[in-house]
Amino acid sequence: MGGGGKKKNKRTKSKSKKLSGEHALASRYVNEWILHASYASPPPPPSAAAAAAAADEFLPPEAPRVPDRVVFELHSHSKHSDGFLSPSALVERAHRHGVKVLALTDHDTMDGIPEAMQAALKFGMRIIPGVEISTLYSSREIPGNGEPVHILAYYGTCGPAPYEELDILLSNIRDGRYLRAKNMLLKLNRLRMPVKWETVVKIAGEGVAPGRLHLARAMVEAGHVENLKQAFSKYLYDGGPAYAMGSEPSAETVVQLISRTGGISALAHPWTLKNPVAVIRALKSTGLNAMEVYRSDGKVAGFSELADTHGLLKLGGSDFHGRGGQDESELGSVGLPTASIYEFLKLARPVWSNAMRDILYNFAEDPSEANLEKMLKFGVRNKLNGYSSSSCVGGDAVDLCPSSWLATHEDIELENIRLKLASNNLVIR
Ligand SMILES: [Zn+2]
Ligand SMILES: [Zn+2]
């Protein structure tokens, strides 16, 4: 931010005047967090010619200035689950729609995060590593009769700590999805709507656990239904004739796991639940942090009050899949109030800092190649091109490696970690 610009830029009067003190504070806090990210990861210079042209025009690349409205998109899907776009294409589209901070929240996998992080560098955007976890809620009164509940998890730049705990949970869920898809296929066959397993797998894409949407697409392809909507409304809806239950973990377990691994949990689309109040009450008591309340059609009423009653943060996102079609909300279309983003970051940043500190300490204890690999899991490697653990090990590691991305400062006391690394190094030598 220049600060020396004489012309018009004295102050954008009308708007800032109206901001209440509180709002201004929240807005500054949020913007500073985003700007840190832009400074920490400046977009790479394109080509020499383009750079020269840019220099002529005196344009800073993706200028890190405070935007009027900060667009956070906290719910989106890529090809790694049932979305249609690759993570890079998703990031690019989000950028075109003014999104500054994007949470990629694929179903039960974080495999798309590294690619999204890499793509975001180009636009000076920030990625929040996220995941939407499939769970089941069973009320104590009616045991065994579980209701599917989706829980969003938001993590810091280095992801969950320890990563393994979440990873095992997610891969178990994915394995269960294969079984479930096969059961639904069986039911479709019985309903005389044969769909080939190979087709479903092909639609899902390599390594992607098939879900209902993939089955629905196969049904459209085979001509059993006219469109996806019909596939769901007639056959695949919860409890429908071709529906099969998965083997998801309980919602309570998942909420606890998210907070144990340094994440923030949010109940996704509570308006789809049969009994939202019971679910919210049960999950709040196990540590749920937030719930989705805002939608692009702005319907927040009852749920906003529910969130207030239970002391939950109010979030929301488009749940963009890239299906096309008119009823799909665009990336960035859910206008989150600055105050909500502020509350979210205020809660999340210390949690994320702790997780990062754990990861760093862990590395300092055992600065091995394998541990470095783990630490750089979410694409940080790309910013550290050329560094191997041998060039990272030692007192310099904090300067050379983690700090280059931790410069997105989550206020970690690096000094202790530095000492630890140095002492460890002495032992190694
Ligand atoms: Zn969902
Ligand atoms: Zn979703």
Automatic annotation (TrEMBL):
Polymerase/histidinol phosphatase N-terminal domain ranges (all copies): 72-137
Read off the InterPro entries from this record. PHP_dom, PHP_domain, Pol/His_phosphatase_N, Pol/histidinol_Pase-like
Where would you find the membrane-spanning parts of this chain? none
Q: Where is this region: Disordered?
A: 1-23
Do you know which SUPFAM superfamilies this protein is assigned to? PHP domain-like
A GO MF annotation of the entry reads: 5'-3' DNA exonuclease activity
Q: Which CDD domains does the record cross-reference, listed alphabetically?
A: PHP_HisPPase_AMP
Q: Where is the composition biased (Basic residues)?
A: 1-18
Protein name per the record = Uncharacterized protein LOC109720945
- Species of origin reads Ananas comosus
